[in-house]
# Entry
Amino acid sequence: MTIENEAGAAPERPSSDAASIAIDGPVASGKSAVGSRLARHLGYRLVDTGMMYRAITCLALDEGTDLHDEAALEALGATANIDIKPGPAGDPDAARVLVNGSDVTGRLRSPEVGEAVSLVSRVPGVRRAMVAIQREIANEGRVVMVGRDIGTVVLPDAPLKAYLDASAAERARRRHAELQAAGRTETLEVVGAELAMRDDIDSKRDASPLRPAHDALVIDTDKMTIQQVVDAILEAMSCS
Ligand code: DC
# Structure
């Protein structure tokens, strides 16, 4: 199967898709929590690619880059040194993200970055740079990679691709609960509206829009616990 990248060029084949699991899905579909548990269970490395788009967004904000200037964002993506340092063994959630040597991990989930990241991640040149790094990491093998385009673009030959979905109402409820637990005060309505806006940008953008790979295991997680989703993926793995 040949999948073309955003620029229309055939991407270089990753050599070890074979040892990777691709997990995609919209905001608050549970993919990070499921990816983390799976990585722990299998002893694989967890790579949350959203952190990379958030990291490049931190850099753009720090440098005062115009978020509507695609050429400037592409140049930033091409020259930035983004380094994901895996957490200590057994703790896939403890990864640190460094941009040009600075640790930006603590800022990745800030409202400022959350508001800007969709504008940065829709730029084809930024995506090309991030995809190249993601494939390099996957080449090391035994990776659970989480994102929006992992099954469709980054690791199209991964033997197991899961696409997690849930209704907009359920995802808003989950994200609202998460924010409340973190001490934030946004109402459910505001969280739902932000989520709808991000869904819209992520799924309608030209470059690698969010969608399930044709051969992905699509899981509606609305009425499932995290462990039930993990079990469904492990069962699919054992059958493949
Ligand atoms: O999963 P997240 O909320 O941390 O993702 C942050 C942003 O990055 C979001 O706008 C979607 C985008 N993203 C993407 O376009 N491709 C990925 N592989 C991962 C995230």
Summary: The domain at 2-239 is CATH 3.40.50.300 (Rossmann fold).
